[in-house]
């Protein structure tokens, strides 16, 4: 197991280097001059002299390889420069806003797992029954429903019509309900379908027949043998969902005025605040990579065949 983990850690190095190069180049090659955007946000007339001075100050007049190396060295020390809008260090802004996004993503993930795992199990054990049809209907609806539209509908019914829940901001636990449900609804349907399909496949395997022939209780066969193997694709999806919940909260945070990283990033994109956008993109990419690494380790623990193949 240790050899497999070391091998996976070493494989992350070129991935992270590639991510940093893409993050740096994408914004550098987009139309528009960052120096001009900086001046406009600072309410300074973008004259040629002022643009030249800002380009020299920000190091934009240097060759691209030199700019990339300077940016990478600073990024490794969590120095992403200052925001063009707030004129504060970007990382300080991110650290202040990350807890709100992490809390929303955590509550959404909790709701997803609490509802999807039992529903996926019961759907598979009652194939083609009314509950199975109900779950498939939910999956169909979620696939066709954008989360921002669902957010507006929830706000309309539960806040405007029924006056039960708050719609904007981050305060008490009631503020979490609408944005968390909006963010988790699509993932619930995805996990139900994954777990249902995986359990049905495993129920047809020979080891289930042998376990039943040995006289094992059905609950033991389902819980100890079928469910453990059926959770493998769910574990894979979980790694992707962690990154998606953090980065995908961008739209939900704007709908519900949630004071998180996603809302801050949208504002930075509209204002062409390049240091903030670079920090956000790189941070989300690193989170995706780390989440996938943890999933690979969990996958190897659940299925020893993967671990042995990786070590060999």
UniProtKB/TrEMBL annotation:
Domain annotation ABC transmembrane type-1: ranges: 98-295
Main localization, broad class: membrane
Location of the protein in the cell: Cell membrane
InterPro entries: BPD_transp_1_N, CntB, MetI-like, MetI-like_sf, Nickel_NikB, Opp2B
Membrane-spanning segments: 9-29, 94-122, 134-156, 176-195, 230-252, 280-302
Membrane topology designation: Multi-pass membrane protein
Keyword Magnesium listed: no
Keyword Ribonucleoprotein appears in the UniProt entry: no
UniProt keyword annotations, A-Z: Cell membrane, Ion transport, Membrane, Nickel, Nickel transport, Transmembrane, Transmembrane helix, Transport
UniProt xrefs under PANTHER family: DIPEPTIDE TRANSPORT SYSTEM PERMEASE PROTEIN DPPB-RELATED
Oligomeric form and interacting partners: The complex is composed of two ATP-binding proteins (NikD and NikE), two transmembrane proteins (NikB and NikC) and a solute-binding protein (NikA).
Family: Belongs to the binding-protein-dependent transport system permease family. OppBC subfamily.
Protein name: Nickel import system permease protein NikB
Organism: Sporomusa silvacetica DSM 10669
Gene that produces this protein: nikB
């Amino acid at each position: 197991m240790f050899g497999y983990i070391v091998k996976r850690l070493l494989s992350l190095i070129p991935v992270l280097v590639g991510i940093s190069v893409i993050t740096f180049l994408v914004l550098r090659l987009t139309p528009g001059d960052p120096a001009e955007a900086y001046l406009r946000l600072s309410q300074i007339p973008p004259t040629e002299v002022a643009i030249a001075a800002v380009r020299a100050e920000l190091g934009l007049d240097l060759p691209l390889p030199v700019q990339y190396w300077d940016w990478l060295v600073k990024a490794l020390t969590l120095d992403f420069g200052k925001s063009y809008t707030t004129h504060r260090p970007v990382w300080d802004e991110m650290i202040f806003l990350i807890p709100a996004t992490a809390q929303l993503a955590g509550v959404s993930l909790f709701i997803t797992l609490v509802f999807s795992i039992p529903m996926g199990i019961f759907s598979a054990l009652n194939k083609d029954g009314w509950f199975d049809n109900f779950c498939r209907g939910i999956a169909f609806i979620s696939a066709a429903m954008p989360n921002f539209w669902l957010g507006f509908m929830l706000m309309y019914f539960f806040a405007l019509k029924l006056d039960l829940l708050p719609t904007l901001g981050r305060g008490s636990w009631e503020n979490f309900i609408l944005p968390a449900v909006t963010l988790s609804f699509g993932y619930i349907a995805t996990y139900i379908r994954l777990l249902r399909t995986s359990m049905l496949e495993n129920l047809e395997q020979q080891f289930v027949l042998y376990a039943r022939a040995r006289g094992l209780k059905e609950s033991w066969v389902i819980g100890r043998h079928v469910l453990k193997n059926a959770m493998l694709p769910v574990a894979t999806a979980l790694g992707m969902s962690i990154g998606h919940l953090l980065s995908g909260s961008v739209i939900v945070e704007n709908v519900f005025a949630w004071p998180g990283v996603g809302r801050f990033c949208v504002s930075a994109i509209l204002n062409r605040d390049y240091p903030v956008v670079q920090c956000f993109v790189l941070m989300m990419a690193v989170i995706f990579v780390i989440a996938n690494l943890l999933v690979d380790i969990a996958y190897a623990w659940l299925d020893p065949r993967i671990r042995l193949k990786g070590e060999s």
